[in-house]
UniProtKB/TrEMBL annotation:
It comes from Olivibacter ginsenosidimutans. It comes from the Bacteria. This is BrxA/BrxB family bacilliredoxin. Pfam families: Disulph_isomer. InterPro entries: BrxB/BrxA. Belongs to the bacilliredoxin family.
């Protein structure tokens, strides 16, 4: 677990633009199993990848077509909630940061850490926007 003061600015980067923070497995179940589309960001302290993941997620949700729900869990903090979210993301291995789009409880698009590292935020956002345009 990281100290809360360290992760608070990273949490706020998403929550201030409308992401709902999920802190329990029950909240994760309820969000992902809801009707419609749900965008899940596994937030992370990792500077090299997360520094582009958060801006990409924020840019993507500005698209005309966007998920009905936008939520986040924080790796290294609420372990049970993150584990529950990652179970829904199988068969993809755990990675953080990562992003997933669900439709009616089914995983329809996944961006793993290796798709984020070394890529500019706009390229990641474009990938998400294409998925939003297809599924939302």
């Amino acid at each position: 677990m990281y100290p809360e003061y360290l992760v608070e600015p990273m949490r706020k980067e998403l929550t201030t633009v409308g992401f709902e923070e999920l802190k329990t497995p029950e909240e994760v179940d309820q969000a992902i199993n809801s009707e419609g589309t749900v965008f899940v960001v596994v937030n992370s302290v990792c500077g090299c990848a997360a520094a582009n993941a958060r801006p990409a997620a924020k840019a993507a949700i500005q698209n005309e077509k966007k998920p009905a729900k936008i939520v986040t869990v924080f790796a290294g903090m609420e372990k049970e909630a993150v584990d529950k979210a990652r179970n829904y993301m199988l068969p993809y291995p755990p990675s953080s940061p990562s992003m997933a789009l669900f439709k009616d409880g089914k995983l329809v698009h996944m961006i793993e850490r290796h798709h984020i590292e070394g890529r500019p935020a706009q390229m990641i956002a474009d990938n998400l926007i294409a998925a939003f345009n297809e599924y939302c």
